[in-house]
Amino acid sequence: MSRCWMAPPPVSWQVGAAHPNPGRLLLPRVPSRVLDPTSLVCPLRAGGHSGGIWQWQGGRALQGRQSTSILHACSILLRGLKCIQELTWLPFSPQLTPSSFLRIGQLSNVDLNEDIHELETEVPRQRPNEIPHNEKLLSLKYESLDYDNSENQLFLEEERRINHAAFRTVEIKRWVICAMIGILTGLVACFIDIVVENLAGLKYRVVKDNIDKFTAKGGLSFSLLLWATLNASVVMVGSLIVAFIETLVIKVCGVILSVVGGLAVGKEGPMIHSGSVIAAGISQGRSTSLKRDFKIFEYFRRDTEKRDFVSAGAAAGVSAAFGAPVGGVLFSLEEGASFWNQFLTWRIFFASMISTFTLNSVLSVYHGNAWDLSSPGLINFGRFDSEKMGYTIQEIPIFIFMGVVGGILGALFNALNYWLTMFRIRYIHRPCLQVVEAMLVAAVTATVGFVMIYCSRDCQPIQGSSVAYPLQLFCADGEYNSMATAFFNTPEKSVVNLFHDPPGSYNPMTLGMFTLMYFFLACWTYGLTVSAGVFIPSLLIGAAWGRLFGISLSYLTKGSIWADPGKYALMGAAAQLGGIVRMTLSLTVIMMEATGNVTYGFPIMLVLMTAKIVGDYFVEGLYDMHIQLQSVPFLHWEAPVTSHSLTAREVMSTPVTCLRRIERVGTVVDILSDTSSNHNGFPVVESNPDTTQVAGLRGLILRSQLIVLLKHKVGDAAWRLGCVCCPCLRPLAGCLAQLAEGPCHLPQLTQGMGAAFWWWGYPSTILHPTGLTSPE
């Protein structure tokens, strides 16, 4: 819904308004503006037109916070008013303008939480050409979707032409698109899994044969060099294509090469992004990367439709990764979607089921079991038999304790990764350096794995073992090195081995050393310029220390039947993953579906909740932390609890950038080209020659609509002649094309331009005393 606020007495600063419908999707860089203090104020669109900047007129340009909550920023502003007389202002100059400040480093919106005191004592000084990265700044490069349909006359005219039969056809097409999303996401997952299995198998066979060959001849240094070189070479290719190209195909190839290269990564995480990309492309019936328009699904080229289909794509990606369709739906609800309704739930669940069924069918045929359908996801944790691996009421406190451990280790992981990411942002920001770092991590990972295998003397009998590539090394004939089952394998298979290998398969020292080394390797790896996920590395770390915990408990209880190491490996995996990513609802269901055991639902839920509570006490989750580090505008679900006393008048500002009913083309071009006012919507007002009177609000028009009108050179006359229809304007409406060449193709910049048929004539308004936390 769009809003306007009635203005209070004049103020000299301006702050944009917050998104009234909070959610998990990224919010835009574009601020809403307000009108003159004596007129109506602040048209605010739900979803796509949020955020804002703060500007002291005649003074220094500052930016307001737009990520976690604009309401919190408002409270900081109010405290700043008390010391406004003490501030030392830096006057504007031609060398430093609001627009140039916005362009520096492509960052905006400074969080004033810790900067109020600095502003009180700041003196004018020469500004550098660049400002260092600050995670409290918000980037200008992000755009949000326009989540509301602009109900202008053109839109209403098109809707009137659609009858009941046409609406039924549209609904059928929605289900068809969801099916296509599920099928294509499942096929992409199949391709990734098959290629990774073959390439990783080839690499491990070559390295294993080489190690076996040179162990007797004393040439293990050559084996180490070969392993490290293979890893670094494969990762180099994957990092190169990710650092310089960003498409779905490149992402798929990147995750394949990252996993084959032996990095501490998983191929499940990127499936969420891949599914979303597939949904965004299929639902629009065109490909921006291939520059192809297939002339289908044109009705769905609206941001509201695209938003829902992307949510379905994210759920389909989770479903394909873990074989958890219900978990995929809950993941989309918990982490991906800003808007939700009953019909959307059905369509997302349908896409998730189609995705896992497609993957299951293709992989079953590939593995020679066409009618078995035993591969529902990229990773299959295997079934946990409740009769053999049940739990008792006495173990509930033990599981809660494991959740505490997982929360602490997860907080440590996130804190270390935070400082590592800050180092990368400041010193490893060039693509060539990012590729070199990825190669270095791959070589170090191979070296650490080789040294750990070499130093380990944990030998286990090969007979009855499920190890795919057993390394004998210095073990006796018929035995293999158990450390190799963790390092010399894909992470997914290592997790399954830790879950289901019989007691006695691992020495406690082996598990302890592996947990320590892999913890730091995974922390170093996350954030590299490669396609990778954190799900599987987190599960592997947790499974290792969880199994170690189970073995220790078994020693303490002298072999009690409820001290099974595999069961505690599962709880440790859930605790570690929950402590890092801080997911609860969806992760509980994903773990239940992946293990095929509902019995463990309650202890898994307890472990995840405990890990989240403990982890949140120290540091925020990994995803939220990286959103902040990447300067991505983000708005949380809830407003700060202390913001209930704030009203609309306290975040209003002046002057507003507005358009008259009949505006010159040159004026419109200048407004859209002005980088200091990145508005996404403009109020349309009635011209009033008497400046003492309030200008009347007539409607709201979006930046995307203005760009489309300018590109097509459309005016009211074209509408009256029937030369323009909504479908012919829609293809450009979603892409927000730049106006670099716009003025060159507008021959008459002084010509009047009317947009009466395109603006939204009925935006909602609220009064200035309205509380910011009041419901819509």
TrEMBL record:
Gene Ontology CC entries for this record: lysosomal membrane
Alphabetically ordered keywords of this record: CBS domain, Membrane, Repeat, Transmembrane, Transmembrane helix
Record membrane topology: Multi-pass membrane protein
Signal sequence bounds: none
Keyword Repeat among record annotations: yes
Subcellular location(s) of the protein: Membrane
Major place of residence: membrane
MF term (GO), any: chloride:proton antiporter activity
Membrane-crossing residue ranges in chain numbering: 174-199, 220-242, 248-266, 309-331, 343-366, 396-416, 436-455, 509-528, 534-556, 568-592, 598-619
Pfam family, one: Voltage_CLC
Superkingdom in the source lineage: Eukaryota
Tagged with keyword Metal-binding: no
Family annotation (CDD domains): CBS_pair_voltage-gated_CLC_euk_bac (cd04591), ClC_6_like (cd03685)
PANTHER family membership: CHLORIDE CHANNEL PROTEIN CLC FAMILY MEMBER, H(+)_CL(-) EXCHANGE TRANSPORTER 7
Protein name: Chloride voltage-gated channel 7
Native source organism of the sequence: Taeniopygia guttata (Zebra finch)
